[in-house]
Write a structure and sequence with these properties.
heterodimer; A: 283 residues; alpha/beta; Rossmann fold; Alpha-Beta Plaits; nine-stranded mixed β-sheet; two-stranded antiparallel sheet; 11 helices; 34% helix; elongated; B: 127 residues; Nucleotidyltransferase, domain 5; five-stranded mixed β-sheet; 5 strands; globular
Amino acid sequence: MRLAVASGKGGTGKTTVAVNLALALRQKNLTLLDCDVEEPNAHLFLKPVFYFTKEVGIPVPRIDFARCTFCGRCSEVCAFNALAVLKDQVLVFEELCHGCGSCAYFCPERAISEHERPIGILERGNAGNIKFGHGRLNPGEAMSPPLINEVKKMCRPGLITIIDAPPGTSCPVVSAVSDCDYCILVTEPTSFGLHDLDLVSRMVKKMGVQAGVVINRSDLGDDRVEDYCRDKGLPVLQKIPFDRELAEYQARGEPIVKHRPSWHDYFEKMFYRIAEKCEGVSR
Amino acid sequence: MKIAICAQGEGLNAKTDRRFGRSPYFVLVDPDHETVLESIRNENADAPGGAGPQSAQLLSEHDVGAVITGNVGPKAKQALQAAGIVIYTGVQDTVGDTIKEFMKGVLKPLSGATVPGHSGIQKGQWR
């Protein structure tokens, strides 16, 4: 079973939910993948011991000018404008390239080979019983989906994988949430929380992924998030009231379940509720 | 020499556009005779990325020798220079005014990019 934790708005508590859920389940062979590769932070709470590190790159074109006839086919098939063919020159803008390989495939002269452009680092480790993986995107890099997909290769059929997604609704989030059985949407009862919950809930609906909502700092703000969930038929899975002590644990990098045994039950119950909804579609 | 002028529409009376890669039209003129050779629609104006280099390729395909724009970004500049297209900044209000200014010889060819990348993207363009 693959379970994503996402949010439209940043800073609502995705990592808090993902980490504490993973710890609360106390299961063997559970995997937690931090797919927020631009700013991974789950490791700060789980403190895994890493045993594997790999550089991840994407294939970008290299032109063999002895063969190139400047026909312009590569530029024509590139969906991302990464190639410009100018009379007797071909310019490759590597930072625009998504690594799809179309240019090399369609080149009639076989004048294009591919080489790897590094985009980040993949790390795998163990945190007690929990198998852990995350990616670290290189600073300034915009192309995160290939790294996210590489991190997700740790998903194993039949076992529980919790995926901590990046915030927002753009390509990296779609990469993190795709192929998941369920998506927990973490939000807060504010105007921004509601606005971005609407965006992300429409995103998961379009992707055909079931979703439920966790409302963090639930006693602040107003009722519009709950009204929204009722209107849209989104189950509210959990409400976490604002509590200064919780913020203090977080600031020290300590998971909340360590200090609040009741959280084990809250999260376990939430998990079984989700598992019931996923029955029959579980991989 | 064929010169391209960044414009919002077709012909001599068209308003100019200060952007290069996202300029909606390029009006190709023969400056010596102050005549319009062709107005080409720039299909790259709404590209998600790489509008500059693709527009340079478009001008290269039309055998343009120089371009007059308001600004040019780093990737566009690299591509225009690779294509041997001379870059002038200082478009005037209309295409016609710009040709007159060019013929006075007061426009200077450019050495560096005038704006950072993505400057031609209008606010809210992809809403």
